[in-house]
Fold these 2 entries.
Entry 1:
Amino acid sequence: MVKSKVTSAVGTLGEYLKEQRISAEMSLRQLADQAGVSNPYLSQIERGLRKPSAEVLQQIAKALRISAEQVYVRAGILSPDSNVGGSVELAVLADPSLTERQKHSLLDVYHSFLALNSRVTDDAPAADETDEEPHHEENPDAHAAQD
């Protein structure tokens, strides 16, 4: 299931990039030159055969003069809900000291935490039920045993 989701996101990304390229009245070769990638590689991205790195996506977005964040959303790297972790994701993607593999690993861990926290939040009791701290009786024998 995960693989089909990735394939779907990549296909959608390729179609989106092709639409943006055509809208910008650029040939495949022109975009490849401006983005600093090979013509065959860009063609494979547009056809959904390749999943480009965040850096390549950023170069393509810059060449097309479109938002890199929007391209990241289309690629499935960023959540479409801008209120959920966008700044963390963008910071990880923009960090030049991390490798692509490290970036994807960090984002995977981050997304798993977000998913876990949303499940915990959904299962948690109402705030009124959790405001009170539990009352603990002191055991006078415990202090005596320490002396």
Entry 2:
Amino acid sequence: MLRVMTWNIRTGGRDRTGPDRRDLVVGVITAQRPDVLALQELRGFDRGGLLDDVAGRVGMRPHLARSCFGQPVAVLVRPPLRVLAAGRVRRPFHHAAAWVRVDTGHGPLTVFSTHLNPYSGGRRRMEADWLAAPCDVPAVRWRCSAAT
């Protein structure tokens, strides 16, 4: 069975005036042992090798998407799961959006990690539409068009 986990670690696992929570984050991930992990709010993880360090500590390979406005996000994959493709959604997300397509043995699975805009419902909807646009899911499209 494939184990998938998502987690907003809040401000890179470190508060401006509070304690560093990164070791606790690593402990939870290690205990849960996900095969695929979507992480959000990775402030500071895009420099200094921090993401590679955390990924190594939990035995996973990272795929990061940087953000122009907010914070980076990432998808981490545990070997021996095979990554077929990976990248970032190239749209102006408030934070960012990363994606990874893995071979599950039952077909490919695409996993997104994103943190939608926290300030605007309309903007969140637009970002969700950007994520859904490349998906080829005829049954969902049929239900949506049939309901209108």
